[in-house]
Amino acid sequence: YEYNYWSCSVARLDYSGTGVISRVKPISVQYGIGIAEHDQEGRVITLEFENFYLVNAYVPNSGRGLRRLVYRVDNWDPSFADFVEKLESFKPVIVCGDLNCARQSIDIHNPPAKTEDAGFTEEERESFQINFDMRGFVDTFRKQHPKAVGYTFWGENQRRNNKGWRLDYFLASGSIIDRVHDSYILPDVTSSDHSPIGLVLKL
């Protein structure tokens, strides 16, 4: 892969980062969303291609004790969504990555026990709905597989019992959703506590 792009946190070492590798040379590459408060942790890389933007994101986790919940839902989420929506005014957008939210009960094992856990609070799910669903972005996996139970993340020693979360997504602009052939999870790839996900677009 000749074209590869990386970003990492400069606010805290060994904390967060994103990367994109591509066979196709992008038209342009942007790091961050243009807001210094949010761009110190290396969480967003945007590649512009001929027919769409690809935005790779690692959304901040609300953390133990939900210490970053307010920052996440009141600051990061709307700022990131505004950034993506601005891109969409030029061409369709595909957002991919760890969005750190199980957006529906089907996306998490034992949801009644997790409502106070980072990634499944009412505030985070409502923020996801406001900033993505209501702005016309489509959860491609759920669109393709409305009733499938599929997880992309498992806590320590939980994978063997499939007690997981679906935190990783491909979201697509409504204008490009008809080009989605498949959106899938590869749960048998066990090199990380997250599993790879994939998106296939029609030509």
UniProtKB/TrEMBL annotation:
InterPro entries per UniProt: AP_endonuc_1, AP_endonuclease_F1_CS, Endo/exonu/phosph_ase_sf, Endo/exonuclease/phosphatase
GO cellular component: nucleus
Residues where Mg(2+) binds: D98, N100, D193, H194
Cofactor binding summary note: Probably binds two magnesium or manganese ions per subunit.
Domain Endonuclease/exonuclease/phosphatase: 9-194
Top-rank taxon: Eukaryota
Residue(s) at site: Interaction with DNA substrate: H194
Site label Transition state stabilizer, positions: N100
Record bears the keyword Signal: no
Keywords on record: DNA damage, DNA repair, Hydrolase, Magnesium, Manganese, Metal-binding
GO MF annotation list: DNA binding; DNA-(apurinic or apyrimidinic site) endonuclease activity; double-stranded DNA 3'-5' DNA exonuclease activity; metal ion binding; phosphoric diester hydrolase activity
Any GO BP: base-excision repair
Necessary cofactors: Mn(2+); Mg(2+)
This enzyme's EC code(s): 3.1.11.2, 3.1.21.-
Active site feature: Y58, D98 (proton donor/acceptor), H194 (proton acceptor)
Keyword DNA damage recorded: yes
UniProt site positions, description: Important for catalytic activity: D168
Family in the record: Belongs to the DNA repair enzymes AP/ExoA family.
NCBIfam families cross-referenced by the UniProt entry: xth
Name of the featured protein: DNA repair nuclease/redox regulator APEX1
